[in-house]
Amino acid sequence: MVDPLKDLPGYALRRVSAREMAILARRLGALGLRPTEASVLMMIAANPGITQSEIGRHLDIASANMAPLIGKLFKRNLMHRERVDGRSHGLTLTETGLQLNERMSKVVRQCEAALVAKIPRTHRKAFLQALQAIWSPEQD
Amino acid sequence: MVDPLKDLPGYALRRVSAREMAILARRLGALGLRPTEASVLMMIAANPGITQSEIGRHLDIASANMAPLIGKLFKRNLMHRERVDGRSHGLTLTETGLQLNERMSKVVRQCEAALVAKIPRTHRKAFLQALQAIWSPEQD
DNA sequence: TATTGTTATACTCTATAACTATA
DNA sequence: TATAGTTATAGAGTATAACAATA
Questions:
Q1: pTM for the model
Q2: pLDDT per residue over B46-59, tens digit each?
Q3: From the CA of B74, how many Å to the C1' of D13?
Q4: CB pair distance less than 8 Å for A129 and B123
């Protein structure tokens, strides 16, 4: 069978990303978290008092999608909100949130390590730099 | 702001893939196609007579999702089906399908070229090889 | 028994529009 | 006017379960 997609880097990028995400999603599922929720928890853990809109801008999540996402984590008592001004609340993880963040971060690190381990040692640095290069320009 | 995700290759992979897919989706939208549909058309164009299940296995699309996908393309008269056995049909592009495939392939090649152009020349080969290395193992 | 194709359904992520309240 | 947050809704991709027809 002829495979016209095999040598398209963009297609390979898509397939590889989808599979790694599926692996991460399954592992995080054991903690009741989805990848997006995990990334939000990590942002709050690293930046106590950060607002919903700041997280959204940084992770490129639309504010309309941040609302239910934060709401769900809030209901699980993973964070508390403190009024910053009339419009926004600063978010900080609760003790429960911090504990979950620890366990979740461990899972994330394991998945990341497994990913890197698949790359031939000599190509790792170039791979990461290439990703950063594609990522950086906020164009298009 | 502290960014705990910046140095995670898996996260970078996800973000980069999402953006490149969004760019491709927008460009293909002008042709009334979505990325998944385009990949299916390319598979049929390169392998006339291929069956739905063969495409699904190759592109990792579940058969339950192939059905409506193929049905939609069929209704647009982009392909015709010829009975292979009682269960499956061989798919071949119509003249309309071939013409659309030509225009679509041009868009895909342009997007792929734009992606590669973002990668520092010295890292391109390693990047592609790394992607193939991550991709190859069908393991978890 | 296994495979092909199908329908129905649900979940995740994303996208847009419209709205309130605040700056 | 612009920003923060919310609600409702829709689309795309993916996933599972169940089924009929065929091998």
A1: 0.93
A2: 999 999 999 999 99
A3: 20
A4: yes
